[in-house]
Amino acid sequence: MAIEITGFNWVPDFARGYVRDLRPRWACEEIGLPYSTRLISPIPPKPATYFEEQPWGQVPVLHDGGIQLFESGAILLHLAEKDTRLLSRDPQQRATTLAWLFASLNSVEPGLFELGNVTLFSKDEEWAKLRRPSLMEDIGKRFDRLADALGDRDWLTGEFSVADIAMVTVLRNADNSPLITDRPTLAAYVARGMARPAFQRAMDAQLADFQPAPVAA
Known about the structure:
By secondary structure, the protein is of the alpha+beta class. The protein is 53% helix and 9% strand. The chain has a 4-stranded mixed β-sheet with strand order 2-1-3-4. A hairpin with a 2-residue loop joins strand 3 (61-64) and strand 4 (67-70).
């Protein structure tokens, strides 16, 4: 049976191309794994049955035959187990790849979540204005260490892997920000990821699935 990935059928313009079902789409495209999409609305009320698949009603959810799972990181790991182009079978290479996969989601992404809240969703709140300078400094320090760890390699572990799918999609949340543009190593890394044909196919597919904005009742 083909892989089925659940995504949203509409999001605001600023979120298009950034919804996390892009991650498993990209992984499937890298290894030529066919997949279909099941599209749901992000606007409440969501079907009650969907919360049995994803407790918070988010995407993606993956169906792979009799296997069902949620969380993009878990889905990426599941898909990576299918092909050595995403996850090496060499014990140390595998371990390093997994470490970077988790690091992208646990050590890098949370700061960018908070930055999105501070600069977009809560930008007019006084607390957000006060928090932004120290948050930018904290994220910048973390990005400096990431750039140092990447060094002059093209990819986190030397060879492209599932860890790069996770990290590139995380770093894209800082697109056109000094957090990226002031760090040429990271800017070039993100550009390499986005230049991959599989990324472009995944992006095109996600964008094509979005429908016009829903009409207000």
